[in-house]
Design goal:
There is one protein chain. This protein has a 7-stranded antiparallel β-sheet. The chain has 1 helix and 7 strands; from the N terminus they run αβββββββ.
């Protein structure tokens, strides 16, 4: 588990470049990052058990997310880095 003693810049870089599972203050469940562009080496979406959102921007204080529903309506959201309580790297399956 990470988090203790980490500042916002470190949390941002870890979320941006490493596949991790994390919890968010005030939200239930575990979220995980996913990378779809291996060449960029940057995570492109955040998922919970069965629902995901794409990353629009890795900002200085929060990550901005977006998704589209079946009727092409765009939904956006933000997660502040300071609200991320604990996170750990995802172990690769053998």
């Amino acid at each position: 588990m990470y988090r203790k003693g980490k500042d916002i810049k470190e949390i941002r870089e870890i979320l941006k470049t490493t596949k991790v599972e994390f919890t968010v203050k005030g939200k239930s469940g575990v979220f995980r990052t996913a990378c779809f562009d291996k060449k960029a080496k940057q995570n492109g979406s955040i998922w919970n058990a069965f629902y995901g959102m794409n990353v629009s921007k890795w900002g200085p204080t929060c990550v901005t997310l977006y998704t589209f529903d079946m009727l092409s309506k765009k939904s956006t959201g933000k997660i502040r880095y300071s609200d991320i309580e604990n996170f750990s790297p995802i172990k690769k399956k053998k």
